[in-house]
Amino acid sequence: MLWYKNWRETMPMLVFLQIFFVQFLFPNTWKIFSPDYSPAIFAIFMLYGFMLLGGSGIRTRLGFSRMKSSSIQSTLYTLSLPVTRRRLLLVRSAIGFLEMVAISILLAGLVLWIIGPREALTVMAMGHTLLVVFAFGIGFYFFSTLLATFLHGAYFLLICHCLFCVFVVFSERLGWLSAYMGLRTVFRSVSATGSLPWLQMVTCVVLGGICLLASIKIVEAQEY
Fold it and tell me: Staple partner for 116: which of 55, 76, 121, 185, CB 3.0–4.6 Å?
């Protein structure tokens, strides 16, 4: 039941992200952001999806229930289920993350099939990009999970969107941060050298783990 509920909750955002991502298979759309089909652009938009798909598993996101009163009733019903709040959060986190992993793999395959032969993209380069996306995605996804413990509805989506855009822009403009965590810089380096940025990947995984633990503590102590 929990898996079905969370799948229903994430389905509207999942459909939106699929439509949003598929448009980047067309050359004119992609070249708005980059003169070539750089895997860096693919990676940034995948991480954007990880950021938007997070949730606490307790407060129902918009789309599953549009009316505020219905959302409150759904939250109370969820809390009345014979499961712990920790399990509610972990199940919601697992299904959202797995959905984004599946979308990333599917879109990477489509990019290689449709765009790869024309732009000389290789399976190895896209595979390296996906590995880094998944590691970075853990950080972004569980940070959004942390935000979802005290933000919900349109506020959650707006704050996630703004924070992601600010990070992408300013991480490229600060000298020391650009070399370490600038998304374009990191992913272009992966494409050019074929080496994985292990330090950055481990950092994102650790930060994601910290955010997950903090989310569990907040959910268990929070009054609804």
Answer: 121
Amino acid letter for position 215? S
Q: Is the pLDDT of residue 78 over 80?
A: no
Nearest to 204 by CA among 132, 99, 108: 132
CA distance 157 to 62: 10
Q: Tokens 């992408």 map to which residue?
A: 168
Alpha carbon separation from 125 to 164, 194, 212 (Å, rounded): 25, 7, 30
* CB atoms closer than 10 angstroms to residue 195: 9
Identify whether the C-beta of residue 50 lies closer than 8 Å to the C-beta of residue 93. Answer: no
Model pTM score: 0.83
pLDDT (0 to 100) of residue 209:
94
Q: Which residue spans within 152-221 are E strands per DSSP?
A: none
Q: Which residue has the tokens 């999806």?
A: 49
